[in-house]
Automatic annotation (TrEMBL):
<feature type="region of interest" description="Disordered">
    <location>
        <begin position="129"/>
        <end position="159"/>
    </location>
</feature>
<dbReference type="GO" id="GO:0036297">
    <property type="term" value="P:interstrand cross-link repair"/>
</dbReference>
<dbReference type="GO" id="GO:0006289">
    <property type="term" value="P:nucleotide-excision repair"/>
</dbReference>
<feature type="domain" description="MrfA-like Zn-binding">
    <location>
        <begin position="105"/>
        <end position="210"/>
    </location>
</feature>
<dbReference type="InterPro" id="IPR018973">
    <property type="entry name" value="MZB"/>
</dbReference>
<protein>
    <recommendedName>
        <fullName>MrfA-like Zn-binding domain-containing protein</fullName>
    </recommendedName>
</protein>
<dbReference type="Pfam" id="PF09369">
    <property type="entry name" value="MZB"/>
</dbReference>
<dbReference type="GO" id="GO:0043138">
    <property type="term" value="F:3'-5' DNA helicase activity"/>
</dbReference>
Amino acid sequence: MPAQPATATPKVSQDFASISPSAFTSTAAECPFAAASHGEVHIVRRYPGYKKIRYYSHDNIGYGHIDLPDQEMHTTAVWWQAEPMALEQALPAREHAIEGFLGAAYALHHVAALRAMAEVRDLGRAVGDSQGSWSAVLGSDGRGQLRGPSNEPLEQPPGDRFEPTLFLYDNFPGGVGLSAPLFDDAAVLVQDALGLVRGCACRAGCPACVGPILAGDENRTLTPKQAALSVLVLLNGGVA
Ligand SMILES: [Zn+2]
């Protein structure tokens, strides 16, 4: 058996410091529970560190911090928001709502790439506030973490307004026309994502539906899969 090289591949982890709609936006006819919109967005990406992974086995053998300037991009996106009252009724705890949005974003991202006949990396996804005042990332504990505009951790979204927004954006500067057809198919995409998550054989969530979960999530009362399903049902106009 060949000896495994001791060197490792640096892999940069990525954080979204902020995403905020700018310039034109168009919003689809709002149903009582959710709205889909399309428009231009400004994205700020920050790479806070890197992870070292061993060749072949993908063992995690360390990480380090890096200090790079933010990368900014102007592009187009389609985004979904749930009606705040309906969201609070479906998922009263904000951490569950954020987790639901992150899981729903994972499923929608993959069905959207398929429908657009694009690579998954041709589209980007982000969950955050519609005004860019916070964004949510998946932390190392598998839970959604809130970050402020300067990437500082937040305990709670600032202010009283809590309007998590799920963005799928064209991952090329200026956009190459991927987001407009996704907006036209916004309702179909949500149904596709619902079908994907509901039809998955896993119990609590997995990389084939809402993204990887931790072993401890299997025994939770509200699983990441259920949280994501609740959000997708809202985005589907409350139709399960
Ligand atoms: Zn699954």
